[in-house]
Amino acid sequence: MKDKSIIADQLNDLEELMIPRRKELLTWWLKFFSAVFVVTGILGVFSYPYMFLTDSDPGVALYGLESADRTSFLMLVITMLFILKGIAAFGLLAEKEWAVDIGLADGWVGILVCLFVMIYNYFGPAHVFAPLGLELLLLSAYVVKLQKIRADWKRGRGRVN
Known about the structure:
The chain has one domain (26-152). Helix 3 packs antiparallel against helix 4 (99-123) and helix 4 (99-123) packs antiparallel against helix 5 (134-155). The chain is built from 5 helices and 2 strands. The protein is mainly alpha-helical. It is flat, with a radius of gyration of 21 Å. Keywords: Membrane, Transmembrane, Transmembrane helix. The chain crosses the membrane at residues 28-53, 73-93, 105-123, 129-147.
């Protein structure tokens, strides 16, 4: 009887070792863009208050949204999108359990914003032809990849201390 529990414990240990680390589930392009967006997320946190302290109006753009007025609501929205991307990217690189869920939310928000901008540009006052953007293709690949690794991420191992 005791031998069976020892074998079961060893099988559980072996099964746990066979589960890949979460970072191994990420492709090279996910790691690259995550590193980029960690930096832009940090810049977003510090640059927004800095704009008001220095009376500067830098041009900022993301997903087709553009603003060069620090007091506009659009500048706040773009900054918040960069911060959301930074949080998702940090979670993925740090192998946090919640990272894929935040990443999926970030991806879907990005897709919705891209679609809104494309539709607005087409039917808006300027009536500009809005081609399918590269951002939309990259965001779709991002969401599909995160959806594929979601189950393995949830049961995967985090950083080993």
